[in-house]
Design brief:
The chain has two domains: about 1-30 and about 135-225, 3-Layer(aba) Sandwich (Rossmann fold), CATH 3.40.50; about 35-130, 3-Layer(aba) Sandwich (Rossmann fold), CATH 3.40.50.300. About 45% of the residues lie in helices and about 15% in strands. It has nine helices and eight strands. α1 packs across α9 (about 215-225) and α2 (about 35-50) crosses α4 (about 100-110). The two termini are about 30 Å apart.
């Protein structure tokens, strides 16, 4: 029996819409939403706390093999989609700091860190009934997932979305800097030696450009029901 058959894997680059759709789909299905990016954020947080830096790949990799990270159903009504636990500590919001933002890409590119996090993600996945969002879910973490979706949109459109999101939170933002940062992240994600970002062979490709959240959700829901048209 496939222990991961009740997993829906949604991959894609930053601001492709995968998190928004993943959250809404999980709510509809009664599944837990699991953004695997939180795992790498937790490693970055742990490394920054211990070393005040993430530049020593060997040290960060060794640390990743020692810490225990978990994602559990939300226990607090503060906007979180799930609890992120690092060695018994709730770090759900601590991993969203600007310092972690600035260092998580480097941490996630370390091969040993990715190997360790894949093992921890597969442990979590055995619980079943998950909508899992990330960049290598359908290709590396859960190639046995019951449904795989790859969401995409042109980088300019994704940068526009991120800019609008940032402004709506009342934060200062530069559209040009966001676009530059997103292109850099795309380059790192798609060219790293371990688990680069690309669609699984059996993934359904969904371009979200020009579509409303409702329209994308309708397409994804159709796939869940067994449809083939995206």
């Amino acid at each position: 029996m496939n222990p991961y058959s009740e997993i829906i894997a949604i991959d894609g680059p930053a601001a492709s819409g995968k998190s928004t759709i993943g959250e809404k789909l999980a709510e509809i299905l009664g599944y837990m939403y699991f953004d695997t990016g939180v795992m790498y954020r937790a490693v970055a947080l742990a490394a920054l706390r211990k070393f005040n830096s993430v530049s020593d790949e060997d040290a960060v990799s060794e640390l990743a093999g020692k810490i225990q990270i978990d994602a559990q159903p939300s226990t607090k009504n503060d906007g979180r989609k799930h609890d992120v636990i690092l060695d018994g500590e709730d770090v759900t919001w601590s991993i969203r700091s600007q310092e972690v933002d600035a260092n998580v890409s480097q941490v996630s590119a370390y091969p040993v860190v990715r190997r360790e996090m894949t093992a921890q993600q597969r442990r979590i996945g055995k619980r079943g009934k998950l909508v899992v969002v990330g960049r290598d879910i359908g290709t590396v973490v859960f190639p046995e997932a019951g449904l795989k979706i790859y969401m995409d949109a042109p980088v300019e459109e994704r940068a526009r979305r991120r800019y609008e999101e940032t402004r709506q939170r009342g934060m200062e933002a530069s559209r040009e800097e966001i676009l530059k940062s997103m292109r850099r992240r795309d380059q790192i994600d798609s060219t790293r030696s371990v688990a680069p970002l690309y669609p699984a062979e059996d993934a359904h490709i969904l371009d979200s450009e020009g579509l409303s959240i409702g329209e994308v959700l309708d397409k994804v829901s159709n796939l869940v029901r067994g449809g083939k048209d995206v």
